[in-house]
UniProtKB/TrEMBL annotation:
Keywords, comma-separated and alphabetical: Glycoprotein
Domain of life: Eukaryota
Biological processes, Gene Ontology terms: nervous system development
Protein name in UniProt: Sema domain-containing protein
UniProt xrefs under Gene3D superfamilies: YVTN repeat-like/Quinoprotein amine dehydrogenase
């Protein structure tokens, strides 16, 4: 197995990210940030109307 660490996204085994079929949809969220607090992953997501989801 490949270890998933800080340099995982730059590895050549997971490039390029793409597919053979187009994915379409409606944008629900426009902003996202996350961090670890006391061992928990906390994410805040913002909508295009200005609402904040946690």
């Amino acid at each position: 197995p490949v270890p998933i660490d800080d340099s995982f996204c730059g590895l050549d085994i997971n490039q390029p990210l793409g597919g053979s079929q187009l994915v379409t949809g409606h944008t629900l969220y426009t902003e996202m940030t996350s961090y670890v607090y006391n061992g928990y992953c906390v994410a805040f997501v913002g909508t295009k109307s200005g609402r904040l989801k946690k």
